[in-house]
Amino acid sequence: MSTLEVKDLYVSVQDNNEEKQILKGLNLKMSTGEIHAIMGPNGTGKSTLSSTIMGDAKYHINSGDILLNGESILDWPVDQRARAGLFLAMQYPAEIPGVTNAEFVKAAVNARRPKNDPVPMGEFMKELQSTLKTLDMTMEMAGRYLNQGFSGGEKKRNEIMQMMMIKPSFAILDEIDSGLDIDALKVVSRGVNLMRGDNFGALLITHYQRLLNYIEPDFVHVMMGGKIVKTGDASLAKRLENEGYAKLRDELGLDIKLVDEDA
Question: Where are the transmembrane segments (predicted)?
């Protein structure tokens, strides 16, 4: 079993020549075998959390720690975190002309294997074909340049395909449901559910209950004001869908203004 822990994390970002505090003492612990979901109003720091865990340099960690299997990873570069088993499916994946999907995924798979033991080509292609079929993607997608000319739905499926091939210990899925129709949402959810098991954990960052209808989380966390203010089971997400965030904020006695409230 592997663990990922965020301890009392304070994170800021440069905004108009000023340091803007975004995360304000966030705590989270998860283990492989678990699916966690984070929900919260706009502007509360959900995407900041995902980017900080993966080591995005534009975010400044003021204090706190991020531990992978008990070891701090604050000084680790992005590629070291990825090799150690962390994976981020981004909201807006970058387009990389000149590098095909298959080339990119094969390099990523080999990066997690011993240097003298690359994945055999036949084994790689067989698994790639199977994974593409699972996600209703064609082999033609494997030969296209990474995300170039892809629709929003194709990019999201492609992120899940990479996750399934790389087999990380922990996947952070940042609004993987954004912009997907029902059919595409079902396909993406299928890929995540096939990964569930003792050697895999996921952190789903989402605004909507509908994703959690297809990927049932073990834990749901609510973020407000840059930290987690409440944790529950899957029923908490359904409550938020029905009641919204303002009622929970008032119930908890929090002095937090929600971004989408009238001034």
Answer: none
